[in-house]
Each structure stands twice: as structure tokens, then as C-alpha cells.
Predict the structure.
Amino acid sequence: MSETLLRTEGLARHFRVGKLLSPQTLHAVDDVNLSIDRGEIVALVGESGSGKSTIARLLARVYKPTQGEIYFEGKPLSRIRGRRQRLAYSSDVPMVFQDPYASTNPAYRISHGIQRALHLHRRDLGRKGRAAETDRVLDAVGLVPARAAARKFPYELSGGQRQRVGFAQALAFRPKLIIADEPVSMLDVSIRIGILNLMSELREREGVSFLYITHDVASARYIADRVLVMYAGHLVEEGPTEAVLQRPKHPYTQLLLSAVPDPRAELGVADKTDVGEPPKVVDPGEGCRFRARCPYAIARCETETPLLRLLGQRHRAACHVAAADADLTAEPQLAALTDS
Amino acid sequence: MTAVTAAEPAATPGPEPPLGAARRGYGADLWNAVLRNRKALVGLLMLLFFVVLATFPGQIAPYNPQATDFLPGLGPSRAHWFGTTAYGQDVLSQVIWATRQSLLIAFAVGGLATVLAVLVGVSAAYLGGIADGTLSLLTDVLLVIPIFPLIIVIAAYEKNSGLGMLVIVLGALGWSYGARQLRSQTLSLRTRDFLESARVRGERRIYVIVCEILPTMTSLIVATFLGAALYAVLAAAGLQFIGLGDPNSQSWGTMLYWAENNEALGAGMVLWAIMPGICVAALGAAFALLNYAFDEISNPALRMRRLDRPIDGARGDAVPAVPPAPDRILEVRGLTVAYATDGDPVIAVDNVDFDVARGEFLGIVGESGCGKSTLLYAITRLLGPPFAGEIMSGHILFQGRDLVSLDERQLRHLRWREFSVVMQSAMNALNPVLSIEAQMRDACKAHSNMTDKEIAARSREVLQLVSIDPIHLHSYPHQLSGGMRQRAMIAMALLFTPDLIIMDEPTSALDVVAQRSLMVQIKELQQRLGFAVVFVTHDMSLVGHFSDRVLVMYAAQVAELGRTRPLFAQPRHPYTRALMEAFPSIHGPNARLTGIPGSPPDLARPPAGCRFAPRCPQAMARCHEGVPPLHDVEGDLVRCVLYDKGAVPEPTLVQAS
């Protein structure tokens, strides 16, 4: 299970913003090193504007990295040449989109996207093979009976069902890694769990890895093996899900966790409020990007960008303070005990 | 609009609804819509009439149109319905034969202009960058130069080059308007996920344009064609009338040209001059009607269905079922709201009763499509275009006055001053081209006689209340972050310190951190200023810490209404319990959850009996026997047979008749 499927090295994506005469650079993603193993579900958590979706689009090759490299099965993506190699990669790493109401073409039956995917990527299948495969993937995502579901138009389906169509389309590629960009955030709370369960099942049955992008920490905990936390374009913490959630190292992760509404918790107005907003990362200098909101900021945070440091077993955080703190330095042994 | 959902096939294992007749598809839907539209039908019949004339002129026309066999200048008679020309030709036959050319021009120019408009508009928008710049510039130039004089000049040079040239000139100059519309439509589609999905899939660019974008714009493309055809009919007739066509051709314009040259009107050949004009107008009208109809079909908002509203001003005086209580700010009694559809009306809010006490925080929770937004719009009396719902019965007593019976003027007096509304998306609710200050000023001016100075002071004050620096008075909505926009909306709602603020999922577009801080802020303001809050959300966990009572709605009805603390500690209705167990937690063991199987019922065909029964793990035979009443359990209300004490004296029914 620990074979690396995809990893990035110093991945960065900048966008030019501002006027013609005063050009500025928006650092959507900076220096991100992440890895996803075969059959692993990795959650990428952060606020909107933290760069999560940019990472999704970099991995799906919608954007080209400004710096850094993505390795898929050990091969760098920058060496992909020609339509055939591009298609091969996009069928290995398909994407499921956030808005189920916009991700299916209203003019076609829902089988359209699946059929096109099969047509483009699995040319060996004949007409019959395509129909059978369409039924198989619709069945796999719980749209039953598949034959009838395939003939529906998007407007005849509910949001949750449309999101299942998105996963069915991805499955048609026989993917190795599905990038799911906030697949449940536009769905009702009551049907989110169905989609999350679907992702777990697909991992079990089809052996697919997932990069699950979300701002909902609780749902990340529910399905992910590992959690990556992003803040303002930087990866600020990563580690096994329970370790990150039970012993968050980075002050931002702590803030994020304290904001999660939990009806099972004690009732009463929360004490800690934070009206700060995630910064727009335009021409950032050195320094920790969370320092303005951070209750523990020290002088060093102004001048030196913290790098990810190992603070527990497979558990890293990019924070000067967390590393210096006596409690946290004691943590690694503690984490090692529970992580195994 | 939540009520008008299509029938749901079950996605998750569970009882399968019948799949119904297989749908014939997008094209068939469009065709059905055309047949249902009266304008379209009339236009289509008129067009058909001309098409028949143009196809079989030889069979229909009584004489050879060119033969000068008759006496010149005859008036209408049985032999010559429209009389004869100054050259002794039959006018009726000429009119009929001329149809062919006019239609030919209309369809050829329409086709050519549409192809050009699609090519230019769609590729400009989809390719973007320099291509877009160049093509848009070309389009705009064509839009602003006076086309008709230009056509006259070109036509004068090319006077004798025939019909083909005319079509090319008209087509080449007539596509700009359509291109403009198609471009903006494509721009709005360009970032839609289904196109991105097609690109990620590895589709070629040309496939995306032709097979993914164009089919979604069918009605707009048809409208472009009809608009261009209309313009071609009129322009061709005009050109030929001033003698810039081939004078020997058979067309309505040429007929007018000859009639004019022979002073037909003065010489008693009235119909020679009038009939071609009428034909031009009629064909133009046919295209215009079809064009309008397609506009309506592609924008359903233009076509409103209305329900007969049984409630009028007079009925509002009726004594409410329960006398108003002084400590209640809002009392909703037996409220029923319906939407008009092609079939039976859909009841989106079904006989709902609840109260809000002064200073209370009431959370209204439910899945989408359960009627919670409709309920909110009904309470604020904001139903109406584009929300096609109507209050069918019931009372909304706000501080003792029945909002249902008030007219728009009286409502305006109450809204914002006495109760205000915070909408789901601040980006849509705020005007993007006005600064926050200007929007506050507009609101104050519309609802009070405050002076500019007072308004400025009050605006600062309310912004500070929601901890926004008053410097942002000069900011525009897009300059604020999502959280700040929502807080600015709340600040505007506070302008007159209302007694009740109604909020429709104000935090759903925000991240958890911003969401948390906004909720805390709302709660603090509420405790400080003492207003009551009705808070509508699909996320139960959100109201858990903040509301005094929670109303759980399911399929247009109240499922449970109780005090927050006991309700969260011990949810009574199986639906409430299922909702509570539907989301994972970050604390405790990470247990596998099941969610709620199936989806909420189609409100057009609600199940008989308890509406949750088809999805309920505890359903029994009794559940299907009739809608259970609301049972009073220790002061809280539950609509479930589990709480029916059977033999015990009838439980207190709190359902108002």
C-alpha cells in the first residue's frame, strides 16, 4: 500500500494580476511537496483561496506549473509529449468537479460523458462494449438500474445523483487516481455521506486513490488516510488523519478545527472567534503567511518562511513555534505510539 | 423555486419508483415547448402559409404573373382579386410568385448570418485573448456603423449582380447582433464545469465547441436565425423598393418599386401598392413572433403562470385562529403555499404553524426541496416573480398585523424597519456597481426620512456593529471578502434596528472559520440588540449552538419543533435523528455512517400518510394510513405515530384548522 503513485516537488503556480504598468504576481500555490500512495485517500483541506483547487488543476494538467514538477508513477509530467500521452495521463488521473449542477452538459443524456470517455480512452471497446461498460460504471456508483439511469437527462436527477454521474464518468477511464474537488460541498448535508461512502467503496473495490479536496475537516476525517492542510498557497501541515485531528501542530489547523460545528459537543457560544480572513497572496515576501492571524507569532515568523518539519510519525507541520514548543517536541514519541 | 423539481429516481438502494416513459430528449422538449407557446404557434402557421405559397406558386396562382394579358389598372374583381397592374398583369399572381424570392432571401440570409454569428461569437468567446479582441472589435464596428446606408451603397454598386450578391451583402452585414449574444452566452458557459470536464477528458477544441457548447445554445441560435431572417425580409424589400434590386425579378419589393413608379395609389390600383407591403409585414411578423416565442422558451422567467389566489385583501380581516399573544413577534398559522406548474399546483408549504417569541432565535432546518426557502419567502411576502408561488391560505401575524392581508405599500413600510431579510448570497444580493455607502443610503431613503448626515452616521454605526472598519463604506462588494460581504448584508439589515431578522443560509457560501465567526457575531448582536432571528439552513450542526428552538421541515410540513437543547440531546422524529446522524464528527470514534437513503419526495406527488415513511427505518403499516398529526411531547411537537398514545385521550393537537 505504500507505493507512491504521484508526488510533487516544489510545485508552484503563480498568476499575473494587476495593471499593465504595475504587474503583480498572485502566488496561488508555492513550494508544495505532496505524495499520494496507491489506494490511498488523501484529503487536502483549507479555506477558499488557499490554493486547493489550483493544486487540483495542476494535477489534472489544466494549468501548467510555474515551478516544480509532478511525478506520476515516477515519470515527470513535463515530459509528456503528444496527444496520445496526454490522453493516457488524463485517463489515469481524472477529475470530479464541485458543482454537480454544472458538471453535466444539459443537452445530453448522462451516458454522454461516459461514452465519450470510453470513445477517447478505450478505443478497443466496440459499441456493445461501451454500452456494457457504461452500465458497469453507473452500477458501481449506485445509479440503478443503470440502463434506465443512462437514458436520463441531467435535469431529471438530483444533486447527489448528478455527483454520482461525475464519479461514474471518472470510473470509465479505469483511473488510478481521482481528483475530487469539493465533490460534496454543494450537496445537502444529508446526502453528503452517501458520496463519501461511495469514494471509500470505490477505493476498496476498484483500488483507486483519491485526492479529496475539501474545506470540511469532519468529512476529511471520515474517509481520508492522510490529511494535508493548506494555508495561503503553502502546505502547512500533513500527517495521518487522526494524528492531525487529535494533535494539530500548526496554529492554523488548530483554528480550523475549533471552527468545525459539532452538535454533539457541549452547547454554548464558542469563546474563540477569529474575524481574520485568509490573505490574498500577492507578491509575498519571506515569512510565515499565517503570522498576522497567529496568536503565537514570534519575530522569526516575519523573516523566515517555515518549512515542513517532522513533528510526529509521518506528521509534519511548517511552524517555527510548534517546533520550538516544549510540549510539541515531546509529541513525536507520543504520536509514534498511536500512529503504528 | 425549490418545489419544482423533476421526479427523482432512487439512487441509493431502496424502493424503485417507476421509471416512467423514456424521455425523447432535448430537441423533443424544445419542440413541445414551441407547440405549447401561442406566439410560436401563430408565427409557425403564418410562416407555413408563406412556405406553401412559395413552394407551389404554379398551382396556386390563377395566372402567369408576367403575362400582360389583361386590361391595365383594373380594380379588384372576381377574376382579379387584387386587380391588375399598370401593365395588365394579375396582382394576386404576382404576389404569390414573389413569395418565393422573399422567402429564399429570408432563409439564405438567415442561414448565412447565423453561421457567421456562431463562428465569430462562439470562437471569440471560447478562444479568448487576441482572437476574442479582434473578433469582438469587428462585431462592435459592424454594430455601430449605420448598416442600411452601407447596404444601399454596396447594392448600388452591385446593382445587376442578382440575388446571390444581395444575400451575401445582407448576410455579411447582418450577423453582428447575433454574434454579440452568442459570445456573451458562450462566455457564461466557458467556465462551466461540464466544459472543463470535457477538456480534462481530452476532447479536442473543435469537439468542445461544436458538440458541447452549440447544443446547449439551440434556442439562442434559432433566435439568431429568426432575427436575421426578419431583418433580411425587411432590408431586401426596402432595397428593391428604392430600385436597388433587379427590376425584372419577382419579389414584393420589386412590385412596390413598379407600383410606386406608376403612382399606383393615385391611379386606382391601390391593392398593387398595398398587398406586397402587407405580405412583407406578415412575413416579418411571423419571424418576429417566432423570435419572441424562442426568447420566452429560453428564458422561462418571461413566461409566468399564475395561480388564482383565493386570498384577497378582504379575507385578511378574518379573526386569526389564535388570538395574538403580546410576547410573540411572529405567529404563522396554517400557512399553505403552492406553485403553479403545467400539472396540478405543487404545495411547497403545507399548513405550517409556528411562533417566534421576542428576541428568540429559531432555526429552520431541512433538506433542499423541503419548502424551507418557500416558507421564508412567504413570511416576508417576497413571493412573486420570479418566485411563482402563491399563499393559498393561512395567516402571518407579525406584531399583531396579518402580513397576508397587507398590500405592497403597507409591506414596504414594515420591511427593513420592522423586519429585515439577509439573503443566501451577498454577492447576488448586493448591487455590484454601487458602493456599500450608496446601498445603505438607498435603503435609508426608501424606508425613512433620514437626512444625509443621519444616514452617514448610522451607516458607520452599523458597520462597526458587525466589526467592519467604516473605511469600507466606500468599498464595492467585489472588494470585500465573502465573510465581509455577508457581514455588510447583516449591517444593512440592522439599519433600522428591526425586531426580527430573517436569514436564508447566510453562511453557506463561507468557509468553516468565517462561518463560525459570522454565527458568533450574529448571536452576540442578537443578545445585545434583542431582535428575534429566523435562521434557515440545511446544516443542522450550524444552529445547534445558537438557536433557542429548532423547526425541522420535511416535504413541506413541520416534522418536529422543539427546544434546541433537548432536540439535539434526544431527537424524537426519525427524520431528525437521521439528519443528526448524517454527518461525520471530528470527535469520538470514526464510525461508518449511512446517511438517509433515497431522496425527499416529489412534492407534486407526496406519499399518502407520513411523508418520511418511505425512507424511515421505523416505518410501520400505520404510517401509510394518513398524515400523522403533530403530537405534543413535553411541550415540543413531533409529527410521528411513535408518539401517538393511542388509547390515552387524544394528544393535544396543535394543528390549526
